[in-house]
Specification:
By secondary structure, the protein is α/β, with parallel strands linked by helices. It has helices spanning about 140-155, 170-175, 200-210, 225-230, 285-290, 295, 315-320, 330-345, and strands spanning about 35-45, 45-50, 60-65, 80-85, 95-100, 105-110, 120-125, 125-135, 155-165, 185, 190, 195-200, 215, 255-260, 265-270. A hairpin with a 7-residue loop joins strand 2 and strand 3 (about 60-65).
């Protein structure tokens, strides 16, 4: 039997709900005017450990995640960031990082010299402390040269901290860097009259660090963690021994960590590095980082590449002659080795 026909009205028409809602979209980002300032002290698997109200009675550690609007912007120890959400610091609480303050400096490295991919290390640092042992493991001038270049292009001062000077006279090694006017401190282990072990020279190092934001960089086994434990009571950074066969240290710090100094200031400990790539550095900025060679290069003919095959390069003659201000052939070889690799990696260098 057929059903009788009937009139239809609007109640018989199904309308799909608007899943996106009726609120119009906007390109305006929230201002987050209520965000509080914090300093990033460590990074661990997508979570950032920060310190809020440092040095006050309200000081607290707050764990935070990155807000979606920041995208993939790097956030590293030393960064000053704006936090919103739960900033109480209670166990299980999680705030959001919604902005990154303008940086006074940004230290980076690459995996290798032929890899231009930047690996951010730390931000807002005033001083780079190059920790180098004069023995066990052997000092490596190439590592120091690379770090000095990275510090120069980032606008960061450098300080050479020589450790284990009780094992060997540091003067022969220091003579290579005397023309640079590079400030340095020397430390060594000593046993006091009551039989306790102390680090001589620690006060001089502390004078350079107090009131500043510093970063310690060096190969594994040179004594960075030992210095940190002496500078910051309770730091409890793991220390390791140098392998007798390879002459290299074992990695004991797995991530960078910023710590407050008792006398004021911050010091950032970085994991021991085996290499410090400069693939992100512009080849044209390299010579300026070699402060001892740059004035000599002014006497080169126009268009000189300053490389080993460069005709009439003044660096060869002046360095060979031992002119005042020259750091010798070792420094020149170090510059040319880096310049050759960086120019090969520079797509604009023809």
């Amino acid at each position: 039997m057929r059903r009788p026909l009937r009139d239809y009205d609007e109640s018989d028409v199904r309308i799909r709900p608007n899943r996106r809602g009726s609120r119009p979209r906007t390109k305006d980002r929230p201002r987050h005017e209520d965000a509080i300032t914090a300093r990033v002290i460590s990074v661990d698997r997508g979570r950032w450990r920060t310190i809020v109200d440092a040095g006050t009675e309200q000081e607290r550690a707050v764990t935070a995640m990155r807000a979606r609007e920041l995208g993939r912007s790097p956030i590293v120890p030393g960064d000053l960031v704006g936090l919103v959400g739960d900033t109480s610091g209670r166990d299980g609480s999680l705030a959001r990082i919604v902005r990154i303050a303008e940086r006074s400096s940004f230290l980076r490295r690459s995996a290798d010299d032929d890899d231009a991919t930047e690996r951010p290390l730390v931000a807002n640092v005033d001083l780079m402390v190059l920790v180098t042992a004069v023995a066990a493991p052997e000092p490596r001038g190439g590592m120091i040269d690379r770090c000095l270049v990275a510090a120069s292009v980032s606008g960061i001062e450098a300080l050479l901290a020589l450790t284990k000077t009780d094992l060997r006279d540091p003067e022969p090694f220091l003579s290579s860097y005397a023309p640079l006017g590079l400030e340095h401190v020397q430390t060594r282990r000593m046993i006091t009259a009551d039989g306790t072990e102390q680090i001589a020279g620690l006060d001089q190092l502390r004078e350079h660090l107090t009131g500043r934001v510093s970063v310690l960089i060096g190969h594994s086994g040179v004594g960075k963690s030992t210095l940190l434990n002496a500078l910051v009571p309770g730091a409890d950074r793991a220390t390791g021994q140098v392998n007798d066969v390879t002459g290299r240290g074992r990695h004991t710090s797995s991530s960078a960590l910023a710590m407050q100094l008792p006398g004021g200031g911050w010091v950032i400990d970085t994991p021991g590095v085996r290499s410090f790539g400069l693939g992100h550095v512009d080849p044209e900025d390299l010579l300026e980082a070699f402060a001892d060679l740059a004035p000599l290069a002014e006497q080169c003919p126009r268009g000189c590449t300053h490389l080993a095959d460069g005709p009439d390069c003044a660096l060869d003659e002046l360095v060979a002659a031992g002119e005042a201000g020259s750091a010798g052939s070792a420094r020149l070889e170090s510059y040319r080795r880096l310049a050759t690799v960086l120019r090969a990696n520079d797509p604009w260098d023809v």
